C-alpha cells in the first residue's frame, strides 16, 4: 500500500509563511482547505501530515506572525527616550505596516483575529493572550514613564494603556478597510494629542 507523504522538496517554513498570509488575509473560517493547499503548494494529506489540522496550522501561523511580523512594530515601544516617544513610535510604525503592501495583507493578524464567535476556543485563547502581551508592553512603558517622572503618579496606567491599544486596533481595522498611511497618521496624531497634558513633550 502506497504511503502518501510530503512532496519531494517540501519546504515547511515556506508553506507556513504562505498559510500565515492566507489566514491573515481571509481569517480562519473563510480560508478553506483547498485555499490553503493551493497557497502552500501541497496536497491535503501533506498538510495534515506536516501540521495536524487546520486549527493547529492556524495556531502555528499565529505564532509565526508573532515571531516575525509583530516584533518590528511592537518593539517600537522600547525605542525613544520617553514613554510618549515609545507610544508614538508604535503608532507611527502602524501607519507604515498596517496598510496592504505587496504580499502583506492589510491590518494586523494578531489584533484582528478571533473577534467574533465563529472561532475555535483554542484560537480565541491564543490570540487573546497575544493581545494581552501587547497591552502588557504598553503598561510597562507607561509605568516607566511614571517612575521617571514623565507622567504624574496619578496616571491611570491601565486606562491609558488600553486607550492606546484600542487606537492601534482601530488603525488595524481602518487599514483593512483601505485607509492610507496618511489617513492612519492623522489618527496617530489625534491619539498623541490625548497624551496627559502635564507629561513631557
How would you describe this protein?
By secondary structure, the chain is mainly α. It has a domain at 66-194: Tetracycline Repressor, domain 2 (Orthogonal Bundle), CATH 1.10.357. The protein is 64% helix and 0% strand. It has helices spanning 12-26, 33-40, 44-51, 54-68, 71-74, 83-97, 109-112, 121-147, 157-176, 181-193. It is elongated. The mean pLDDT is 90. Residues 32-51 bind DNA.
Average of per-residue pLDDT values:
90
Q: How would you classify the quaternary structure?
A: single chain
Question: How far apart, in Å, are the first and last alpha carbons?
Answer: 72 Å
What is the alpha-carbon Rg in Å? 19 Å
**Continuous helix count:** 10
Secondary structure category: mainly alpha
The proportion of residues forming helix, as a percent range, comes to 55-70%
Give the CATH class of the domain at 66-194. Answer: Mainly Alpha
Beta-sheet strand percentage?
under 5%
Biggest sheet layout: none
Order of helices and strands: HHHHHHHHHH
CATH architecture type of the domain at 66-194:
Orthogonal Bundle
CATH 4th-level superfamily of the domain at 66-194: Tetracycline Repressor, domain 2
Low-confidence segments, given as residue ranges, are: none
Number of strands: 0
- What is the CATH fold-level name of the domain at 66-194? Tetracycline Repressor, domain 2
- Which term fits the overall shape? elongated
Organism: Bradyrhizobium canariense
Domain HTH tetR-type: 9-69
DNA-binding region: 32-51
Keywords: DNA-binding, Transcription, Transcription regulation
Amino acid at each position: 500500500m502506497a504511503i502518501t507523504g510530503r512532496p519531494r522538496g517540501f519546504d515547511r517554513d515556506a508553506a507556513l509563511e504562505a498559510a500565515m498570509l492566507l489566514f491573515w488575509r481571509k481569517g480562519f473560517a473563510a480560508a478553506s482547505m483547498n485555499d490553503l493547499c493551493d497557497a502552500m503548494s501541497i496536497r491535503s494529506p501533506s498538510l495534515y501530515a506536516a501540521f495536524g489540522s487546520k486549527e493547529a496550522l492556524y495556531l502555528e501561523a499565529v505564532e509565526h506572525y508573532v515571531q516575525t511580523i509583530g516584533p518590528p512594530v511592537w518593539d517600537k515601544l522600547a525605542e525613544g527616550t520617553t514613554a510618549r516617544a515609545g507610544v508614538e513610535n508604535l503608532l507611527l510604525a502602524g501607519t507604515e505596516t498596517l496598510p496592504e503592501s505587496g504580499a502583506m495583507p492589510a491590518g494586523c493578524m494578531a489584533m484582528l483575529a478571533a473577534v467574533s464567535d465563529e472561532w475555535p476556543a483554542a484560537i480565541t485563547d491564543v490570540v487573546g493572550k497575544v493581545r494581552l502581551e501587547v497591552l502588557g508592553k504598553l503598561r510597562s512603558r507607561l509605568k516607566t514613564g511614571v517612575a521617571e517622572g514623565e507622567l504624574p503618579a496619578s496616571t491611570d496606567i491601565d486606562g491609558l494603556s488600553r486607550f492606546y491599544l484600542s487606537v492601534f486596533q482601530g488603525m488595524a481595522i481602518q487599514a483593512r478597510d483601505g485607509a492610507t498611511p496618511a489617513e492612519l497618521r492623522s489618527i496617530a496624531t489625534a491619539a498623541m494629542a490625548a497624551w496627559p497634558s502635564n507629561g513631557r513633550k
